[in-house]
Design a protein that fits this description.
With about 290 residues, the chain is an alpha+beta fold. The chain contains seven helices and five strands. It has a five-stranded mixed β-sheet with strand order 1-2-5-3-4. A hairpin with a 2-residue loop joins strand 1 and strand 2.
């Protein structure tokens, strides 16, 4: 009986021990699982932390690069600022020490501008007088054949071209009677402006002069024709000889080509050139 009880007690003890060990094992296993999960979580957190640290480092490096670039810009702006301040200081020195000189220069510019304006006004006035002269000449010579006389203005100079067919016989330099009437009409217009100066210029074609013993060549012929016209204007119509110039250009300033009869006829002409009043123009220049 006692033996049976002992065996039963032993079996119960073993069973009880087995139960206790199984609970502890499960508890331990649960703890291990919990620790493993916690460890995994900590490992994940550590990785995230490391990733964040790495990202923050990259961002920090990028921010530092921007800061460095901004610092360079600031240095550049400071340099420009300093240079600008220096220029302003220099300008203030110039404007202070040379203000009077600058003012005089500006006054001189204004005076020169007025001077140029006056010259332009005088030139415009002269052009108006030339146009009035041309209109008066054309009115006075309205009954003369247009082919025998031509009046024009070129670069501010008035030209009166009279054909030698009207003025002279072929190869001669004596003024014809009809031509004296034409010269009288021209003289009437010119006398209305007593200060006017003009040149009588003889021109020929390129055919050689063929009257030996009288004149040498076309140079002589052109000059003789010019002086003949001058004498008529002086002696018959009273123009002041001090205001007249006689000149001969020979065949060397043609108005047209000499290879046709029409061209040669155009070249055989006597030209009256109304000279610019240079003395009055130079007086204007002296007033500056």
């Amino acid at each position: 009986m006692k033996l049976k009880q002992s065996l039963l007690f032993a079996a119960f003890s073993i069973f009880l021990f087995s139960c206790v060990s199984s609970k502890k094992f499960k508890a331990a296993q649960a703890k291990i699982d919990s620790l493993t999960a916690a460890n995994a979580k900590l490992a994940g957190d550590l990785k995230n932390c490391n990733d964040l640290t790495s990202s923050d480092a990259s961002k920090a490096a990028a921010l530092q690069a921007q800061i460095d670039a901004l610092n360079k810009q600031i240095d550049f702006l400071k340099q420009n600022h300093d240079a600008t301040l220096k220029q302003l200081q220099d300008l203030s020195v110039i404007s202070g020490s040379q203000a009077e000189s600058i003012k005089k220069s500006l006054d001189n510019l204004g005076a020169k501008d007025n001077y140029i304006q006056n010259l332009q006004n005088e030139l415009a006035h002269k052009d108006s007088l030339n146009m009035a002269l041309v209109m008066n000449l054309k009115g006075a010579l309205a009954d003369v054949n247009d082919k025998d006389i031509n009046i024009k203005v070129d670069k501010g100079v008035v030209y009166i071209d009279i054909s030698d067919k009207l003025l002279f016989a072929s190869g001669k330099w004596d003024v014809t009677e009809p031509a004296k009437v034409v010269l009288g009409k021209v003289a009437t217009v010119l006398k209305a402006q007593p200060d006017i100066e003009f040149m009588v210029e003889g021109n020929t074609d390129n055919k050689p002069y063929v009257h030996p013993g009288q004149l040498k060549d076309n140079w002589d012929l052109s000059v003789k024709r010019a002086t003949s016209v001058v004498r008529i204007l002086q002696t018959q119509y009273g123009l002041d000889p001090a205001h007249i110039t006689a000149a001969g250009r020979g065949e060397y300033v043609p108005a047209a080509a000499n290879d046709t009869e029409e061209g040669r006829a155009a070249n055989r002409r006597t030209r009256i050139v109304i000279l610019p009043q240079l003395d009055q123009f130079f007086k204007l220049l002296e007033k500056k």
